[in-house]
Specification:
Radius of gyration: 19 Å
CATH topology of the largest domain: Peroxisomal Thiolase, Chain A, domain 1
Number of strands: 13
Largest sheet: 5 strands, mixed
CATH architecture of the largest domain: 3-Layer(aba) Sandwich
Strand order of the largest sheet: 1-7-6-4-5
CATH class of the largest domain: Alpha Beta
Bound molecules: oxa(dethia)-CoA
Order of helices and strands: HEEHHEHEHEHEHEEEHEHEHHHEE
Shape: globular
Number of helices: 12
Helix content: 25-40%
Length: about 325
């Protein structure tokens, strides 16, 4: 086997997603906080989002999405070597949500751990899973981006509560000699800006107390404008890097899947990359920002709706708290 094949012998053989049934539309939010459908639509593009039912947790959403991905891959869960769940809303601080999914799936021989890179989590998980396969350590890896963001949203804060939703997306990565799969990936981070998007409470710095609950620090906090600027800059730069590394230009890409946070961010990145509107896949109007699940759910929908065909080149770009970001070029 050539060196190139050794590094590229990782194929995505199954993709699946799941969103909860309950739809929370902008009109309903108008009765919860001081906002309007017009403001949310014009500033973000979001029309509705999905909210998990009581008793439906991140592990539940992740398990549903995983079953669909495994079915598409034709792989029995017992054949999995590794499960990675990317999430900022684990069922509990520990054990890992990946272990709860491992149990539900009956993935009896799999190692399992969570990965935390916020909205960039799925691209991070893809790179980690791919590396395990490229190194020959594992053959079958399940990666999942799953979030129940409704559990950490301050439903009294109009700056944030209109933006997010719940959901999960999963992909099965398998060793396939000669598969092209991932052509190039760039991951990045900048902890200097950790405070512009964070949930300050509940960790060891500020554990839960009666005061911490009253101070509402167990909710997601965001400086929207700062995040917006950083997101456009980092995602554009990462996308340009992976295009250059893979020797492709934007015209060679059939489908661009950006993190689904804000239509204005997506449009700004598209125009900086010189992309046509019809190259860019957008579904945020239906789901809002689902963090680690965002690009995974979008990838599944793009596949199901025939936006991606065998042999197509796909550019996935994400950005999130940390700060973290990532871009990857895939050959489907
Ligand atoms: O997934 C991780 C990445 N996250 C993101 O990418 C989110 C990035 N940020 C954004 O998408 C945008 O910054 C927001 C959508 C969050 C906000 O849009 P903006 O154009 O940056 O608005 P802004 O924060 O500058 O707020 C403009 C005004 C403010 O009023 P004043 O201070 O100008 O009087 C806000 O109080 O809009 C007000 N506002 C709202 N009004 C009605 C903020 N939220 C709302 C709301 N309804 N829901």
């Amino acid at each position: 086997m050539s060196e190139e094949n050794k590094l590229q012998g990782c194929a995505i053989t199954g993709v699946g997603s799941y969103v909860p049934e309950r739809i929370l539309a902008n009109a309903e939010l108008e009765s919860m906080v001081d906002t309007t459908d017009e403001w949310i639509t014009s500033r973000t593009g979001i029309k509705q989002r999905r909210i998990a039912a009581e008793g439906e947790h991140t592990s539940t959403l992740a398990t549903h999405a995983s079953r669909r991905a495994l079915a598409q891959a034709g792989l029995d869960a017992a054949e999995l070597d590794l499960i990675i769940v990317a999430t900022i809303t684990p069922d509990m601080p520990f054990p890992a949500t990946a272990c709860l999914v491992q149990k539900e799936l009956g993935a009896t021989k799999a190692a399992a751990f969570d990965l935390e890179a916020a909205c960039s989590g799925f691209i991070y998980a893809l790179e980690v899973g791919r590396a395990f396969i490229a190194s020959g350590i594992y053959k079958n890896v399940l990666i999942i981006g799953a979030e129940k963001l409704s559990s950490i949203i301050d439903w009294e804060d109009r700056n944030t509560c209109v933006l997010f939703g719940d959901g999960a997306g999963a992909a099965v990565l398998q060793r396939r000699d000669g598969a092209r799969g991932v052509l190039a990936t760039r991951l990045g981070s900048d902890g200097n800006k950790a405070d512009i998007l964070a949930m300050p409470g509940g960790g060891c710095r500020q554990p839960a107390t009666v005061d911490s609950v009253n101070e509402r620090i167990h909710f997601l906090k965001m400086e929207g404008r700062e995040v917006y600027k950083a997101a456009v800059n980092a995602m554009t730069a990462a996308a340009k890097e992976v295009l250059e590394t893979s020797g492709l230009s934007i015209e060679d890409i059939q489908c661009i899947i950006p993190h689904q946070a804000n239509q204005r961010i997506i449009s700004a990145i598209g125009s900086r990359l010189g992309a046509r509107e019809d190259q860019v896949f957008v579904n945020l109007q239906k789901y809002g920002n689902t963090s680690a699940a965002s690009v995974a759910v979008a990838l599944d929908e793009a596949l199901q709706t025939g936006k991606i065909k065998r042999g197509d080149k796909i550019l996935i770009i994400a950005f999130g708290a940390g700060l973290t970001w990532g871009a990857t070029v895939l050959e489907w």
